[in-house]
Amino acid sequence: MEGADTPSESGPLAKWKNNISRVFQYYLDKATPYSLGRWMGTLVLTLIYVLRVYLIQGFYVVSYALGIYLLNLLIGFLSPKVDPELELMDGASLPMKGSDEFRPFIRRLPEFKFWYSITKAFCMAFVMTFFSVFDVPVFWPILLFYWFVLFYLTMKRQILHMIKYKYIPISFGKQRYDGKKASPNDSSSSME
Description:
- By secondary structure, the protein is mainly α.
- Helices cover 64% and strands 0% of the residues.
- The chain is globular and about 60 Å long.
- It has a domain at 38-170.
């Protein structure tokens, strides 16, 4: 008999959670095409977090863990979906020779998921700054130095991988072919 009460008690809570999730997903979908606005919002959130950590003079371990996580996300964003060193797939692999057909660069971590993960990480780190249990005393210059060394080594490896397999993970939109523009002399000669 006790089990009969459980579904009715969890029903309204589950319905409320489902409604909140649906509204959140609606606004997330609406924000998808506005990448500049999304990144500007994340930049504001980042500045607020940095200002809070600076004013408190603490939570350096949280910031270090956040930096390691962001580095991991960056590597996923810069890496191809299928690594040519590990596996070869017919449709999604990178072109290896100049004679290979053009295949667009497909990221392991798409831009929207990259942005969403970064934003969630900064939100979680910001919330953690309100709990003193996460404020572990540490000599922060060592953590900062170690993070820069780790960043240098990781990016060096990633750049060498990009050079070896000849891909550029950053594109600036679709390239358009305008064709050969006719000069004024060409149009006068065609009229004759």
